[in-house]
Amino acid sequence: MAFEHITFEKKNGIATVTLNRPDKLNAWTRIMEREVRSAMEDADSDEAVRVIILTGAGRGFCAGADMDILSGIEDGSQKREPGAVQGTTAYNVAIRADFQTQYSYFPSLSKPVIGAINGPAAGLGMVISLYCDIRFASREAIFMTAFAKRGLIAEHGISWMLPRLIGHSAALDLLLSSRKVTAEEALRLGLVNQVYDADALMPAVNAYAADLAQNVSPRSMAVMKRQVYNAEFQTLNEAVAVGNEEMIKSFASEDFKEGVAHFLEKRPARFTGR
Known about the structure:
By secondary structure, this protein is of the alpha/beta class. It folds into two domains: 208 residues, 2-enoyl-CoA Hydratase, Chain A, domain 1; 49 residues. Helices cover 43% and strands 14% of the residues. The chain has ten helices and nine strands. The strands form two sheets. Strands 1-2-3-4-6-9 form a six-stranded mixed β-sheet, with helices on both faces. A three-stranded mixed β-sheet has the order 5-7-8.
């Protein structure tokens, strides 16, 4: 499939989605939105893919919504597409409706999504980065909510996600001030998992992804990811009950048998995801 605003590669169990408008710091467009979702769903449905990486081309991750889109909304020449607002009717009853809106679908993917934040992530670009499961950043990365300085509000669920990552007060600081946050501060806040020199970012991300793809049960990753996100809506008792039920299912899986076998036989794992 040909893409206009992204590139998409699958290799050695890793799918890499790259926002590809480097001359615009990968500013987000309607085309990019459709292409990213198409690539993500393709990777999620491909049994050969174990991990997904999302990054940006050039010196930016994503500078936010393209200003042509914002200008079009302001003068009324562009309208939000159907499904653009939260509360969209779920299209898959097996997945929480919360994780099926315009940008909140990353948690519904069964594969881990690693954000390789290689440069500025502002506004909508920051929102997209937060929906990644794990974030590694270049020292050149800058995070900025930007909304308040555009006369906007906390869009697309960032008011839900950001406090869960860095806490209530810190989230309000970043939202209200729209100030720039360096990669080092983002690490201190818990906004990112690790920070690397610019030229070391993608090697580190690929090495981490390769370890997951080669040495970890894809079934375990899918179940754990679902548990963690669903637990945000559960009591402790409910989370314990789900964990107990999933453990019983795990004992009957091929990956559990392989997990024991490769450990005892001291050989590389050959997980199937079943």
